[in-house]
Amino acid sequence: MKIHLSNGEWKLMNVLWEQGSSTITELTKHLAPDTGWSKHTIITMLSRLEGKGAVSHQEGMRAKRYFPQLRKEEAAHFATEQFLSRVYGGSLGLMLNAMVSNHALSQEDIDELSTILEQAKEENS
């Protein structure tokens, strides 16, 4: 599912992914200290996310419960593709070159990338 999430929507979705489901009150308690968002802001964001198909709600008890419909892995994959396309013209090599040139990779990062590349090489053979 290719759904673009804003920075704020990522924050809200991360809570839903972590909790599995939440009410508006629970989301407000969790997010307000860090973001300052009111209940009304969260309601607006949930409405927008429902429109995108990223969340759904279930009515029943006293309060609506909101559930993520978008898997975190799908959202991360799409966001990564968008970033790579927007910033590096889709070139993973250019991005890695920029990271290496700026010394943004630790030895641990390099070792992890080497392992990933070796696995990819084996899978493509």
Overview of this protein structure:
The protein has helices at about 5-20, 25-35, 40-50, 70-90, 90-100, 105-125; strands spanning about 55-60, 65-70. The chain has 2 domains: about 1-90, Winged helix-like DNA-binding domain superfamily/Winged helix DNA-binding domain (Arc Repressor Mutant, subunit A, Orthogonal Bundle); about 90-125, no CATH class. The relative contact order is 0.12. The longest helix is centred in the last third of the chain and has 18 residues, at about 105-125. By secondary structure, it is mainly alpha-helical. The chain is elongated and about 55 Å long. Strands 1-2 form a two-stranded antiparallel sheet. The two termini are about 30 Å apart. The protein has 6 helices and 2 strands; from the N terminus they run αααββααα.
From the coordinates shown, what is the CATH architecture of the largest domain?
Answer: Orthogonal Bundle
Order of helices and strands: HHHEEHHH
Describe the sheet with the most strands.
2 strands, antiparallel
Helix percentage: 55-70%
Flag low-confidence runs. Answer: none
How do the strands and helices of this protein lay out in sequence?
Blueprint: H1 7-19, H2 24-35, H3 39-52, E1 55-58, E2 65-68, H4 72-88, H5 92-101, H6 107-124
Antiparallel strand pairs: 1-2
